[in-house]
Write a structure and sequence with these properties.
- The structure is a single chain.
- The chain has two helices and no strands.
- The model has no long low-confidence stretch (mean pLDDT 58).
Length: 26
């Protein structure tokens, strides 16, 4: 699931999560 979403929201998600608490996206 995240694999597909990670593509479009990669920059947004990575940046947001990174600043929020670094989730398990990368």
């Amino acid at each position: 699931i995240f694999r597909s979403l990670k593509k479009p929201i990669s920059l947004c998600a990575e940046a947001q999560l990174d600043a929020d608490g670094r989730l398990s996206f990368s």
